[in-house]
Structures are given as structure tokens and as C-alpha cells.
Write a structure and sequence with these properties.
826 residues, alpha+beta, seven-stranded antiparallel beta sheet, 24 helices, 31% helix
């Protein structure tokens, strides 16, 4: 008994010393959590403090944002587990067969991700509280659990919001909804630096935050992943289980355990009398969310939504008269976070057993997806995406493959060669392969939270076949290298034009003051055929002494193959001095931003030019757009948006005059509404086929579902292109477009219908309501309206949407560079 007493005293002394060593968030920061917003660097300092103070907490920097804020993960467990962290990680990966080794593990791995939307800022405050509670009061759960905390996925967006709020808030804070502190200015803190929604970027990984996080996620492959969010100020708390539709690959275990997690949360919320809801609004279908991506990687992926968002600030009075405070919001998120760790610890063994089962892919219908390598650049872009997700691919063996043909939606045979890509579903991430490559998304409910089609063969513009039998393949690949050399005898150098990589190369040439041309027609020279749009870099246009060396260096950097020719006299087609061979000018490009502009659409344009084309643009703001001297620009891009207050009659007349003088106006998505049915423009909105007005007798409970007949929610449609038009250079006659809304426009009566939907067009994948579908046939996709010596380009579907529809990006480059030639316009 005396020994036990001494041990108890020793334990109490150690606990006392421990509590003196580690400070709570409030003690460390000098203020109570929830009494103010914590800037990101102070959050990092607190996590560093805990890591430096405790041997059972490890902090790891995994990346950096565009604005150079660090990204961190914190690993919390028992001291024993932390000392064996690498062994636990490898044992877990062995269960998936991603690596060889001991394929058993009894430690639950729980990953908690906070603040993916920067102005949903309570969750990062909750992350600090959750960390402290775990290492002080909930240590028993850590004996069989590794908790991974990402305290802030989106530091750039968070600090944009927090800095703004701190500048405008009242002291004490004002709970009146009309107060300035509850109305964020454009673009708000939700997105990252490039104004992308990081919660929709997990699968596409277009942003640096996503790319760096995905590497760490795949390094660990957790059993549980939670994404913490906020919603409207009047909404109760939302937690699992999720709403329908569930993607068909989601297992019964994943569904059932979500339910158990929800019950555990409810226990704590019921005790406090806090309101909550489940099984509504937030479904598990679109693969690029912070809940679905982990789910398709075998985890229990969940979204938790707290009332608040950017409007709430430190406190706001709801419509029901209650005051919702930041303290409340952080406390609720801490409660669900801790509850998640608790039930995971209680079910650690079963989590591992079921996690291992998920990676049996024998029941999947399609065993192989085969993609024709007709365009090396497009194939390489797809391979880079697969590499990031650590999805295996091989090359086909010469022969014939039978399967579902993506191009015509029929069972057909396709001849394949050793350059074609094969992705098997019999690999650890086979279920994710199925989700990303499936020709048609299976929908059990039309009411969804996001787009309903995303198939990568369509998105990347690759011909493909899905086979129900495993296709013969090999791991051998042909190394690709491009090394050009100077040819001083060259009359000209020729380079192809059929990918966004070619456009990036063009941008680099223009910035190096090299003037290229392009041919409006296909031509043959030295018995080689070159498609319309091919770049022709003439020595006569570039007389500097270092022309060859600069050109070759740029081509090698961008891995572009240059073909030198010694004459401008072609075998077939037009000679290089023809009026049909036009110079490409160094374009001065402006992009509209600000109020009434979709921040996401603007961000897509900004990101496209700055990180992909690497070509400079000037950002204009809608507040002073009317005062801009348009003659300073060759191209003006109007992103999607609602411009009723920006595009006055005077502004539209000014844009028309500028276009007539030679400018190119590129209008995207919802921005077309500002030009449609206006007497100065040829664009006409397609009218719905309405029946005789009758009283609405649809039952109230059915009206939301009844309304979806007017919607198209991210569905894929086949269209026809006039590939002889410069806007469509680099494309075939067929193009699969991602249609994002039910709005349709008439074919241009005065203008060029470069892309359009045919007489019997219907969706090949994804949901489209019956009424919306009626307006798609014989409607516009991409059009050019000539105005004097300039053009207005209408893009009904946004080809830069979320930057993942790779096959659409060249249209934007064509509009900017190939339609702005002086010779072309005359």
C-alpha cells in the first residue's frame, strides 16, 4: 500500500509539473479564446510552444502558401506512439498495400483539418483549444490514437479576413447585423491567394496548398478525416451522417460509422441543449471536397458546419434574437473534434479492420481505363495529376481493347499501342480511380451540393475506353526528352499548337521580344503536315543577333520541339509570306475584378495567366472601370459575374467603340447576361418553352425537388466545333464541355458560331433537368461577334472552371493571342 501511495504522489507531482509547463491558449496568447481573432503567426507560435514543451507532440512544417505563410501539421499521441510514429505510419500504409510490410495496425489515425475557408475562422481558434484538451485532459484516448491537426489549411484567406475584421470592428463588438464588421468587402476571406475555393480543390490540386497537403495526406492515409466549416448565422450545427447522394463506392461501414460518430456528438450537444442537424444538405458525391476525397481514399470523411461564417465576427444577433459569439463557435467545434477522437479511440481496432477491407477492389465493374496518347502534353498533364495522388499507371501493349468508348458512349473496339496509357482499378487506390475516370456518375438523388460530372478523360480531352476486363499493359515507359539546336540556315522554325503548354511557350516568346506568326490554314512543308494554328517563327521577323540562341533556349526550357525549315515555299497550303500567316502581337491584357465580379471566376483567370501561361495581366477594379482608358489594352476579359451596376449604357457603348477600333472583349459565363438581348450586341438568350400560365399546385414539400428540372448541375455535353476558326485551333471537331447552368443562348445570327450544341444534344454524364435540357440543342457554346476591326468572344461555359477542365484552357489562349492580329481583322 505504501508503494502505491508513493506512486500516486509521484504521479500527482508529475501532473502538477506538467500543468505548469504547458500553457493554455488563453495563457499563452494573453486573451481568452473567442475574445478576439488570432492571427496565423500567433497560432503557429502556440502550436510550436506545445510541441517544444511536450515529448508527445511533434510539429512538422509541410509547405508554404503563395503569400509565404507556413503550413504545419501537429502530431499528438502517447509518448510511446510518438517514438514509434514512423512504424505506425508504415504499418498503416501496408494495410492498403501501398507499401510492403506488416499489414496490421491497431492505432487509430484521426486527421482534423481547420479553416479551409479563411473567413470561417472559428475553427482555427478551436484547433488550439482541442490541442490543449487532448494533451491535458484527454490523454487516455491517445494511447491507441494518433491525432493529426492541421490548424489552418488556408492562412492567406484567414489573415485577409482577420486583418480586415480587426480594422473595422467596434469596441466592444457590435452585434447588429447592419454593422460594418458583419459585411466583408470583395473578395472576402473565404478563398486563398488566387481566390480559389480550397475545399473544392482536393482532387484537382491546382493550388500550392492542396498540392503540398495531398503529399502529406497520402503519406499517412488516415482512418478519419474531418473538415471544419461554418455556414449561415441562423443555421444550427451540422455534423455526420451526411446527406444523400452517397457515391456508390462508399462502403456500408463508412455509412454506418458516420452514424455512430453523429450519435456520439449528439450526446454532448443534447447535454448542453445545443441545436444541430444531420443527413441534410451536405452530400458525399463530388470527389474534390475535404470529406469526399478522404472517403474515396478509405477514410471516414466528414464535414462539420458551425453557424457563423464571415458575417458573425466576434458576435452577432441572429434572426431569432440570440447572440452568436466566437466563443460559442469555437467551443462547438472543439466539442465535435474531441468527440471524434473519443469514438475513434473506442473503435480503433474496428477502424483498422474495415480500413483494410476498403482496398479490396475486385468488385469494381471496370478493370482498366485506356487513354489514347494522341497528345503528349495532355497525357503528361494527366500523368502529373496521377503522380501527385500516387495512382499507378502503365502503358498498353500493341493490340485491340474492347470497352465503353467515351467519345460516342458505345461499346466498341479501340486499337492501342505502347504509347497509350492504362490505369487499372486493381491497385490500392482503385476506388479513387473508378471515381475519377467513371464515364457516367451514378446518381441516386438529383439534389446535390455541387457538380455531378468530372470524368478525367473528358476533362483532359483524351480519347478513352473503359474495359470490364483487365487490359494487357507494361510498366516500361519511353523516356521523353526535347533538345533543340541552333540552325543558322533556318528560314524559319515551326512549332505545334494543340495544348496549353504551347500557349505558355508562346507567352515566353512574346515576353522575350520574339515575334511568332501562325498559319490560318494547314500546310505541308518538307513532306510534314502542320495543322492550322502552328507557330511559325521567321528569321525575317526577328533580326537580333541572338535570335537563334534565345529561341532555342526558350523552346528547350518549355520542352517544345522546333522544326527548322530552309524555305517559306510550302509543298501544300499557304506560303509563309501569305496574308493567311499572321503575326502574333505582344498583347496588353486587362481583367475586370471587384464588386459584382465572381471572385472565383476572376481568380481562375488570374491564376491561369500568372501561373500557367506565365503572362502578365493588368487587374482593373469595377469601382473605377468607367474611368479606364481602354485604348491602353488589346484584350479585356470580363469574368463571370452579375454586372447590372457596372455595365451602364455608357460603359457598354464605350466597350463597343473600343472593340470596333480593334480590341478583343472576352466575356465568360454569367457575364453574358449583361450583353444578351441588348440592341448593341448579337447575343440573344434562349427563351424557355413555357406552357400556359397555371396556378402552381406543386405541394410545398416537393417544390425544391420540382425546381431541379430547370437546373444543369455541372453536366458534360458533347458539342461541335468549327475547327477552321482561330478560336478553335488545336481542337478536333468534337469537344466535351462542362455545362454549369441551365441558361442557354441562341446561335448567333450575326457572327461566328465556333462552338455549338447540335440538334439532338443531351448530357453524356451528370444531372440535367428536363426543362433545362430542352434549351441546350441548337444553342451557343463559344461565339465571335465581329465589331469593326475587333471581336467580342462569348464563352457560355467557363473553360477555366476550377482550373481542372484542362481541355478547355486553349480556347482562352486562342481568344487572347490568335484573334488579335491586325492582318486578321482587316
Amino acid at each position: 500500500m505504501k508503494i502505491k501511495s508513493l506512486l500516486l504522489v509521484a504521479f500527482l507531482i508529475s501532473e502538477s509539473l506538467f500543468s505548469q509547463t504547458i500553457q493554455s491558449p488563453s495563457e499563452f496568447l494573453g486573451y481568452e479564446i473567442g475574445s478576439r481573432f488570432t492571427r496565423h503567426h500567433k497560432v503557429v507560435e502556440y502550436f510550436t510552444h506545445v510541441s517544444n514543451s511536450l515529448s508527445n507532440v511533434v510539429l512538422e512544417k509541410y509547405g508554404e502558401t503563395n503569400e509565404h505563410r507556413p503550413l504545419y501539421l501537429s502530431y499528438i499521441s502517447s509518448e510511446k506512439n510518438i517514438s514509434n510514429l514512423e512504424t505506425i505510419r508504415k504499418n498503416n500504409l501496408a494495410q492498403t498495400s501501398l507499401i510492403s510490410g506488416k499489414a496490421t495496425n491497431n492505432i487509430a489515425i484521426v486527421w482534423l483539418s481547420y479553416n479551409v475557408h479563411g473567413n470561417e475562422a472559428s475553427s482555427t481558434e478551436a484547433a488550439m483549444l482541442t490541442l490543449y484538451e487532448l494533451v491535458t485532459k484527454k490523454k487516455k484516448w491517445l494511447k491507441n490514437t494518433v491525432v493529426i491537426i492541421d490548424p489552418c489549411i488556408n492562412p492567406d484567406g484567414r489573415d485577409r479576413y482577420v486583418n480586415w475584421y480587426n480594422q473595422v470592428k467596434s469596441t466592444p463588438f457590435n452585434t447588429n447585423q447592419d454593422a460594418k464588421e458583419h459585411s466583408e468587402p470583395w473578395p472576402g476571406g473565404r478563398p486563398n491567394h488566387y481566390l480559389f475555393d480550397l475545399n473544392r480543390d482536393w482532387a484537382w490540386a491546382t493550388q500550392v496548398e492542396s498540392q503540398q497537403r495531398i503529399k502529406m495526406y497520402n503519406k499517412w492515409m488516415p482512418h478519419i478525416h474531418v473538415d471544419f466549416h461554418e455556414q449561415g448565422i441562423n443555421d444550427p450545427y451540422y455534423f455526420a451522417p451526411a446527406a444523400e447522394p452517397f457515391h456508390e463506392i462508399i462502403s456500408d461501414w463508412q455509412r454506418n460509422f458516420q452514424n455512430e460518430i453523429g450519435k456520439n456528438h449528439a450526446k454532448y450537444f443534447d447535454k448542453e441543449g445545443w441545436l444541430y442537424f444531420t443527413k441534410e444538405s451536405f452530400d458525399l458525391l463530388y470527389p474534390s471536397y475535404g470529406d469526399t476525397y478522404p472517403t474515396y481514399m478509405g477514410a471516414i470523411g466528414m464535414t462539420y458546419e458551425q453557424a457563423g461564417h464571415g458575417r458573425a465576427g466576434l458576435g452577432i444577433k441572429t434572426d431569432e434574437g440570440e447572440v452568436l459569439t466566437l466563443k460559442d463557435r469555437a467551443l462547438h467545434h472543439m466539442t465535435t473534434g474531441l468527440s471524434t477522437v473519443e469514438i475513434s479511440s473506442q473503435n480503433a481496432d474496428q477502424l483498422n479492420i474495415e480500413f483494410k477491407k476498403f482496398f479490396n477492389n475486385s468488385s469494381l465493374q471496370y478493370k482498366s481505363y485506356v487513354l489514347k496518347n494522341d497528345n503528349v502534353d495532355k497525357t503528361n498533364r494527366l500523368k502529373a495529376l496521377l503522380d501527385l495522388h500516387e495512382i499507378e499507371y502503365e502503358v498498353a501493349k500493341n493490340g485491340t481493347v474492347k470497352g465503353y468508348n467515351y467519345m460516342n458512349q458505345k461499346e466498341e473496339k479501340m486499337i492501342v499501342s505502347t504509347s497509350d496509357l492504362v490505369i487499372h482499378t486493381q491497385q490500392p487506390k482503385g476506388k479513387m480511380v473508378k471515381v475519377l475516370f467513371e464515364p457516367k456518375t451514378k446518381l441516386v438523388d438529383s439534389l446535390t451540393y455541387d457538380i455531378t460530372a468530372w470524368s478525367l478523360p473528358y476533362a483532359h480531352g483524351l480519347k478513352a475506353v473503359a474495359s470490364t476486363t483487365k487490359v494487357a499493359s507494361s510498366k516500361s515507359t519511353i523516356p521523353q526528352s526535347t533538345t533543340n539546336t541552333i540552325d543558322t540556315n533556318a528560314y524559319a522554325y515551326i512549332s505545334k499548337w494543340n495544348s496549353i503548354d504551347d500557349a505558355t511557350f508562346l507567352g515566353a516568346l512574346l515576353q522575350a521580344d520574339i515575334t511568332p506568326r501562325f498559319s490560318n490554314q494547314a500546310f505541308t512543308i518538307d513532306k510534314k503536315v502542320y495543322a492550322a494554328g502552328s507557330l511559325i517563327i521567321l528569321r525575317n521577323d526577328n533580326r537580333s543577333e541572338d535570335f537563334d540562341s534565345k529561341l532555342v533556349a526558350i523552346a528547350n526550357t518549355h520542352k517544345r520541339r522546333l522544326q527548322p525549315v530552309t524555305t517559306g515555299f510550302v509543298d501544300k497550303g499557304v506560303d509563309f509570306g501569305s496574308y493567311a500567316v499572321n503575326p502574333i502581337n505582344k498583347q496588353r491584357i486587362a481583367v475586370l475584378s471587384g464588386k459584382e465580379t465572381s471572385s472565383l471566376s476572376f481568380g481562375e483567370v488570374w491564376h491561369f495567366f500568372e501561373t500557367q501561361l506565365q503572362y502578365p495581366i493588368t487587374t482593373l477594379n469595377s469601382d473605377y472601370f468607367s474611368k479606364v482608358n481602354f485604348s491602353n489594352y488589346d484584350v479585356i476579359i470580363i469574368p463571370s459575374g452579375y454586372y447590372s451596376k457596372v455595365f451602364s449604357k455608357t460603359i457598354l457603348e464605350k466597350l463597343v467603340k473600343w472593340t470596333q477600333s480593334g480590341g478583343t472583349l472576352l466575356v465568360i459565363g454569367e457575364a453574358l447576361n449583361s450583353f444578351a438581348d441588348h440592341k448593341s450586341f448579337a447575343l440573344k438568350k434562349k427563351k424557355n418553352r413555357t406552357k400556359i400560365e397555371e396556378p402552381n399546385l406543386t405541394p410545398y414539400a416537393d417544390r425544391e425537388r420540382n425546381n431541379v428540372k430547370n437546373f444543369i448541375t455541372g453536366s458534360i455535353f458533347n458539342s461541335t466545333l468549327d475547327h477552321t476558326h482561330p478560336l478553335a485551333f488545336g481542337y478536333d471537331k468534337e469537344y466535351f464541355s462542362l455545362k454549369l447552368s441551365g441558361t442557354s443562348y441562341e446561335l448567333l445570327q450575326k457572327g461566328n458560331n465556333v462552338g455549338y450544341f447540335g440538334n439532338y444534344t443531351t448530357n453524356v454524364s451528370g444531372f440535367a433537368g428536363n426543362d433545362a435540357l430542352k434549351n441546350v440543342p441548337k444553342s451557343l457554346l463559344f461565339g465571335e461577334e465581329k465589331k469593326g476591326s475587333g471581336s467580342i468572344i462569348y464563352m457560355v461555359d467557363n473553360p477555366l472552371f476550377r482550373s481542372f477542365w484542362e481541355n478547355g484552357k486553349l480556347f482562352v489562349a486562342n481568344a487572347v493571342f490568335l484573334l488579335n492580329s491586325d492582318i486578321l481583322k482587316n
